[in-house]
């Protein structure tokens, strides 16, 4: 790691400790102050099943996110595993909250413990939980319009796929848990698929990490998904660590080697190839980068959350120019059903270095609530050199290309990429039965710089089933 990066990280770490902060790994909707969950946690607090929380939170005087509530549920489950004399009312509350926040636990890579019916025990009696596992069936229909005005549709084999995730989690020491998440994906290997996409149906290790208390915070170490704030700048798998701490300013410090082909040959050009990961960018090329991140969240009031992050990228390869990205975002509850979000990022590249995201959502599809639904409308502008690996499907590179042997932005290699994308999408989600979610999406994307490559329209139909 270069001396400048080490010094910067040291300063960032000291400044963050001088502030405050505990673990919001990423953000979710707030739990309304009238929700039953606050009363449930207050009862668990009084019963001694959870501790170390500000009592004002559970009298509705402070608002927490669904993610933060899910972390509290996890702590309650861990405590219940150690104390077999917990009363029936508390057990029922823990089970009810486990069901309520199941989707958040799954999204965060957190499984449930022995209160789940899908738990099993090994020969030594240790709990192994498989809940959070899920399968997905997805169909994407693409329509493209070229610069000459020709419109074509696509239904290639790769546009219809099956995905299955198997999650296992177990406590191996007091307060310490290990989790592994395996993924298999099958879509008949369409010709436009990058070689590194796991589409053969074989299982691969998606995540494998340990979590436990260190000092006044929580440490995660291993292979995990690093997706600060909304995942707009980076939502990449990597190997490294994340340390989360703080109560007023919730802070995460992480370092990870991004999940990409990697080389230490300093003279080898840092670029992408057909064997690279789909989703590479100017700041995250095919030969890999290290990413150091500090991100934080501060609740301005009951309805407004503020976020910030700094990303530093570097590589052992001398052809790579170290990157720096600043990100600022907010989430505002306009009503109990309507949430407004905004996100802006800027990198240190000389041009095409801005990105922004704005969304408004109405209601939410909750896996525990039959016939619940939600709508989201999003607008995105993602310039070519602004983000690392965005969660948005409106990328900082063209959506696909087979024009050359290299992964390209419609004929332009990623090492000299100057195009980005802008567009919008409309998403509808519905829960027809418990733990099943249907998603329908319309997406439109077009080039930012000129009209030299295809415009894209995509219609997605998706069905997911989650196991609790």
TrEMBL record:
Record keyword Transport present: no
Signal peptide region: 1-23
Domain of life: Bacteria
Keywords: Signal
Coiled coil: none
Domain SLH, first and last residues per copy: 24-87
Pfam families documented for this protein: SLH (PF00395)
Keyword Signal recorded: yes
Name of the featured protein: S-layer homology domain-containing protein
Organism: Pelosinus propionicus DSM 13327
